[in-house]
Amino acid sequence: MSNPTVSAIVTDIEGTTTDINFVHKVLFPYAHAKLPDFLSANSATPAVAEQIDAVRSEMGDPDATLEAVINQLLHWIETDQKVTPLKALQGMVWADGYQRGDFKGHLYSDVAPALRQWKDSGKALYVYSSGSVQAQKLLFGYSDEGDLTPLFSGYFDTHIGHKREAASYQRIVTELDLPAEAVLFLSDVVEELDAAKQAGMQTLQLVREGTQPGKHHACVTRFDEIAL
Ligand SMILES: CSCCC(=O)C(=O)COP(=O)(O)O
Ligand SMILES: [Mg+2]
Fold it and tell me: pTM for the whole thing?
């Protein structure tokens, strides 16, 4: 497919640029193992204390003990809940892992060449993930393909809204200051693509191994099938 009407591309991460297994079998278990000690050691640090208070708010219990907060966070990891303070704290814990070389951000082999080509041809590139902006920058900054962060013009996380809600994509379009139809959203998840399309964006589903294709969005299996 060739599409010269696209000025900006917004990409999802998990299942789109990156193997779901890297997120679920490397990142989430790492956060699950490290969060308790990280929170016990850093609970007085202002950036961490702010997120602990946000967890207490989500729990509806402003007096929850640190132990209760930790148990809540571990439960959210086990059930893959996209709760904003969990995502912020995961990003902080993963920073250690990336910096120590415990893992690198996984990217499918077709992703970095396509991102470079789109950037060179004048497209603006953005990320929209439930992972925090810090986590997104870490994954692309410490990726298997080196530091790809210079390719991106911006990052969006759940502070802009949840990924299955059209209003989130309307806010992104407003931030990009572009007509919605000039923005292409890439994701593996049909509900996210439906929300982006409702906001007027162009959409394309990445059907990586194990992904079920939907009926209402054009599909590709790799980034190098996308001609812009
Ligand atoms: C930013 S890397 C970690 C991804 C993550 O935490 C997550 O929940 C995946 O969300 P996505 O919106 O990329 O499916
Ligand atoms: Mg995804």
Answer: 0.95
